[in-house]
Structures are given as structure tokens and as C-alpha cells.
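Reopening this one. Same input as before:
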Amino acid sequence: MFAHTLTQELLRVLERPDLRVIAGERQIALDPALDLPFRVQPTGAIVLGLPAQGQQEETAFFLRHALELAPLLEIVPHRALCAAFCAARTAALFWYLDTGRSDADAPATWVPQMAQAQVPPPSALRQIWQVLAPLQPDVPRHVGTDRFAALHDALRGLWPILGPTENLMATGGDARLAVDPATGLNHYGCSHRPRPWAITFASSTASSLSERGFAGAETARLSLLAGALHGRGEEAACALDTDIQADIAAHFGLEAGEGVVLAPSGTDCELYALALASLAPGGRPLSNIVLAPEETGSGVPLAAMGCHFANDTALGHGVTRGAPIAGFPIDTLVVNVPMRDAEGHVRPVADVDAETCRLTHEMRAAGRHVLLHRLDLSKTGLLAPGLPALEQACAPMDGMGDGPDVVVDACQARLDPMRVRDYLDRGWMVMVTGSKFFTGPPFCGALLLPVGVRRRLDGPRPLPVGLEDYSYRHAWPRGGAVAGLPAGHNIGLILRWCAALAEMAAFSRIPRATVHDRLRGFLSAVSARIMAEPALELLPPVRLERVPMEGAWDTLPTIMCFFVRAPDCDGEGFRPLALPDARRLYAWLNTDLSGLIPPDDPDVALACLLCHVGQPVPLAHPGLPGMVAGALRISAGARLVAGEPSHEGMDPTERLRREVRNVGRIVDKINLILRHWSRLSMAAPVQTYLPHGWQARAILPA
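Same output, byte for byte:
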């Protein structure tokens, strides 16, 4: 709730969606007579003073500091000293994330010290307190020296969980989550802050948070911090892990005896599925049959062998990419079944099914235990093998022992929960994420366990010892097999899942028939728009062969893939952008190009528009042997169906029409970029969180 005395400058800062979410209903006012940046009142209200009236970056910093301090004083009124330094730590990290500026530009002398990796020594804390004390109500400035030694010890335990939500959500994954200070975005071109001014159809890759998701993560962060400040940090983290597992189980209809394993990514899910397959009775060597690994995660082929798939793990341990992970069978055999031919055509379903069955039978006949995949869906929306083929591959064979383990790679999560329930009833594991269709932040996955597989965790054999570098014990269902995993919690993963669950809850409130109708209308209109554009070539959508289920919406292909005509192929038919150029186009769409486009171009107004689509998928193009093109993707996600807070009050029909118009604006910006390709290539612009000269109301998607 913002008082009328605020200046226009402060109102512009308060338009920021991240600060608006954090502020909530807290009273904020301006007192020109206050010679401090701010003061928190005994009521919890915030009064901003004249020192906060500087550059917008400094104003945002002081407001963020106040918005952190006020709730902490309410959480632990008896620990005002500790609350002050916790808030200062979060504000300091916010400054560097928000601005990318150097220590010399810091708006307060204590900011560089409080942003360090280690807690400042007691003597430094004592000096900093002289600046922080006046910001709080009724707190003495002079505190005994011994108090700062005790404070230092307390802060050392709190330091890892102190910081803005957007900082903490970038932990517990891998380097791709790190925010580039030059752009304000991560490897995926998205942000852990809301970015409602960007047109976003990137759910096949990753999405920036909505205000709803950001609020879900922020609530969880304050819950963790409150528990830690009350001396119950472990209890609070355990409760959140348990609640997340329960909420995922409830969404997908898990029953008693089944389980949820929290994973930083879909690739980690692959590793966990292999670990559970290694616990199957019989102790036979493993064969892992993977469908179209080139259309899943880049690290999946290595994880499928039980090898490190990056040079660091989600828990921050340095490892060697490609090296075997301790405890995993070193004789695991991985066999890949492609779903496209050398020319990029989708292989006939019957051929993929036949090859899958043949390989499974051969491996079983050789005395190997098989981990067999069903891909539902790939990066381009492919589904295989068919259910009859899987049933045939899993049928009992004389002398072959137990049948294969099946794991469904549903990391795109583009399937009805009824479908997941059916997979679990068949005894199959299911990999899901909250970061694709559901538009949660990247790197939040889960492996759903049917009863039979879940029981393996109660057996005498432990999980492979090398998993201690990848996962904590509390991310798994209870059982003796997980006892060797370390205690602790992946805080970044917890916050990312809380953001994703907020989106999942909103989506689940929409009736299935409405979901189907909204998706069908959007997909039909967008397909027509792409096909009408000479510069684009829509890949034929693949019909999804699914068992009919009443009310299920997941028979619709929600990923639309298309090639873009190369800018220099005039008069020679359709030649698509090669993969490196498709990647440049993908980045430039998400970039403010104003200043680089000639002002006389009729579409120059589109230059500042930020458009985030799915990353290019490397595919062969029919008719161009040996060339690897890049297919971009526009995807329908859960937010398209449920809307988001910035859409509140908008008629759903008109909102969907606006989304279709926004796809048209993406197409228009593609044409704008193609017309000025040479100019942009020389300038090499980079993506940014905000357009230049941001005025949110002027550039929100129309």
C-alpha cells in the first residue's frame, strides 16, 4: 500500500514487479525531513527519507533494504541486531545483482563488506552497526563488544541462506543458472525475477518467473530464514522438502507407497533412475535404452552411463565430465534409438517401436537388466515408443528373470496428470520438471516412483556412493538405501520448486475442458500465422498417439517448431538458418535492438521488444544433406492457460487474442532482424533483463 506522498521517481521504482511483490501490502511513505535513507516504524511501516532520492538504482537499493528489514524485525523482534545484519547482507547482494556495478559505486560504505563470501570480523560488524542502528525503531546504537563476537558466530551459520530470492535460486544447479552481470540473465536468457514486459513462449526451454512464481519462492525464503533465526533452520528446511514432495505427489495423483525424489534437473533424474535400476533384484549388468537423446538434455547420454555429465554438480562439487561416478556399474551399456532420420524426417512410429522391442529382447536374452525409456515428449514434441511396443518389450521371457524397468521421460511435463497416474499404475518411473510446461524457473526436476521401485529403497543395498555429490538424503523418500547420502538441503532447488508449484496450483484450478479449448484455439491461430509467413517454415506437428482419456488435454501438440529462411537465400528456394545463425537470431529476439535499426524502417518500434522463444534445436533439413539447421520453437505453457498476475481482470478470450497478436509481433521482429542482419552481425548486441530506457507501461506486450 503506497502513500500519496511518494514522488514520481519512487513510483517508477515501485513499478518494478520484483519490488512490488516483496512490498505486498506494507505501508510505504516519504518524509522529506528524514535525513536517513529510510526508517522502519514500530508498526512495520517504512518511511523513506531524502537520501533515498538519488538515482533509481540507489533508490531501489534502499527500498529493497527496508523491505527486507521490516519483516525480519517482525519475525524476531527480540533479535534486532541479528535482523539488521541479515537484512544488510541481502541488500548488499541485491545491489550487485541489480546493477553489476563495482565496489566504488556502492551506495553505502558497508555494502562491499556485507557482500563478501565470509562474514566480516566482529570489529567490522561493530562499525557497520553505527550506520544500521538508526534505521530501526528503539534500538540502541552502542552495543557491547562481546555482542559482536556472538553475532559473528550466529551470522556464520546463517550466511549461506542470506540473500535475495533471485540470488538463492541461482544456487544448487550448475553454471547455466548463474546470472551474467552484463545482461541480468542466465544461460537460458531468462531471469529469476519477473519480466512481464517480455513476450515469452519459451517453455520448451526455460522461462523467467512470473510475479506468482516469484511470490511463491519469496514466501519460502522467508519461511526458511524465520526458522533459522528461531534456531529451527533444519526443521524448516525439512518441512519445505516434505511439503514440496507432498504437493508434487498430490498434483500427479501419487498414492500410498509411492514416492517423489527431488532433482535439480531432468538429467539428474536420469542418473537417479539408473541408480534405482542398479538396485533391481538379480544383480545383472545393465543396459539403458534411450530414445532420441539429441532431443532431451545435453548431458543425458553421459548420465545414462552413470558418468559425470558436467564439471560440477548441483551441490557444488568439482568433478570430471565423462568420468564414471563411484558406485555405478562400469559395464552399463547405453543404446540410443533415433527418432529422426539423417534428413531430419520423423521416423515412422512402427520402425521406432520395432527397433526398441528388438533391442530390449536382445539385451534381456544376453542376461542383462534393461532400463527402457519412453520419451513423452522430446524437445520438438515427439512421443515414442508406443504403449503396445512397451508392453511387448516388457512381456515375460522364459529364463530371463524380471522384466525391464521403464522410465518415462516426461520432463517437458506436457501431459495430463491422469497420464502420469496410468504410467505409475504400470509400475513405471516418471521424470517430470516444474520448469518446462509449468513455466517455473529452470532446474527443478522430480522422479516419481511406483510402489515396486520405491520398495528398493527399503532393501539392504545402498544407492551408488557417488550420488553423495549430487543429492541430499531429504530429497528422497525414507529408506535404508539413502542412508549414505549426506544430510542437508538444496536451498536453491527448494525455492525453484516453490515457484513452480505456485504455477502448477494456478493451472490445476482451470477445468480440463477449458485447458483444452484455450490450447486448441491458441495453437490453431499461431500455426496459421507461422504458415502464412514466407520467411518461416513450420515443421509438421506430429500426431500424439495416446490412449484416450476422458477430458485429457494432452493430445494437442503444444510445441511448434519452425525454420527461419536465411537472409541471403534470395531466389534459391527456402534455405534455413544454420544452427549458429539460428542461435544468434534466438538471442537477438531477446535483445533491445533500438539504436541499431534505421529509424526509417516501418517496424523500428519493434526493435526494443524483448521476445523469448525456445532455444534452437539442431536438426537436419530435408533436401539439404549435411547441413545442420536450427529450429526455433514457440510453445504453449501453463501460464498461457492460467494467465498471470499482470493479466488480472482481463477477459480470458481477449487475453488469448493478445497472446496470438504477440506471436505475430515475434514474427515481425524476426523479419526486422533478417532485413538488417549484416548491420546486427557487426554490432553483436547482447540480451538484457530490461530494454534500454525502460518505461514498463510503454512496452508491456500489447
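So the earlier flakiness isn't reproducible anymore. For the record, The chain is about 40% helix and 10% strand.
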